[in-house]
Structures are given as C-alpha cells and as structure tokens.
TrEMBL record:
Organism: Hymenobacter polaris
Response regulatory domain segment(s): 9-127
GO process annotations (BP): phosphorelay signal transduction system
Stored SMART domains: REC (SM00448)
Name of this protein: Response regulator
Database matches in InterPro entries: CheY-like_superfamily, Sig_transdc_resp-reg_receiver
Domain of life: Bacteria
Gene3D superfamilies: 3.40.50.2300
Presence of the UniProt keyword Phosphoprotein in the record: yes
Modified residues (4-aspartylphosphate): D58
Keyword Phosphoprotein applies: yes
Xref: PANTHER family: HYBRID SIGNAL TRANSDUCTION HISTIDINE KINASE J (PTHR45339)
Amino acid sequence: MAHGDSPKTILIAEDSSVIQSLTRKILEQQHYRIVVAKNGNEVMRQIESQPFDGVLMDINIPMKNGLECTREIRQHTDAAIRKLPIIAITGNAHNFSLAQFQEAGITDYLPKPLDFDALVRAVRQYIG
C-alpha cells in the first residue's frame, strides 16, 4: 500500500487495562490502528480474523503466554501471519533468556516499565 493510505494495524496483547489503554493512546497518536487482546486465546482469534502489521505481545498474558502465542504465530499455515513482527513486552525479562525469545521467534523485546519513546521507535523500526 502507498505510504499514507491507511494506517498500520497493531494488535496489543496485554491483560493490564492501564498499560493497554496507555499503549493504545500513544500509538493512536502516532496514527496506528489498534486492536487489543487480553489473553492468548484472543490473540490467536484476532490474528486469524483480520490482517495485522505487527503485534505488541506481553509475555505474561493469561491462557497462553506470549511465548506460546509467538510460537503458534511462527508455525501458522498462513505465510503473512508467520512473518508478523512481534515485539515482546516483559515485566520480568530475567525470567526468560534472550535465547528463549529468539527461539520462539520474537522480533525484539522491551522491558517494563515501558519506555514509550523506545516503544514508538521499535514500532516504527519493525512495523513501519
């Protein structure tokens, strides 16, 4: 699509409504279209129901965690879904190694508390 045509759509997978609404507000100011999912099952349902340009994935979402969702996305039968940029957001990065993130197929990750400038930079870099 030509630049400026329609906004990129980002799925935010985050079960904290405070962080979810803050993240959404910040990205909407940057003219992204936002869809939210509160748990891993919703993430997969959303991803299969409409096209996305990228995912902000909290690692600690309920039902299926962010790593499980990422693996499922990377193994999806749909190539467009498999290639989605996935930026993980993690409050306890020390519980996971970078190797685990890479093995799951995460594109990049941001620690919590979220630095919103870093978030916007990462989203622009990977999602455009």
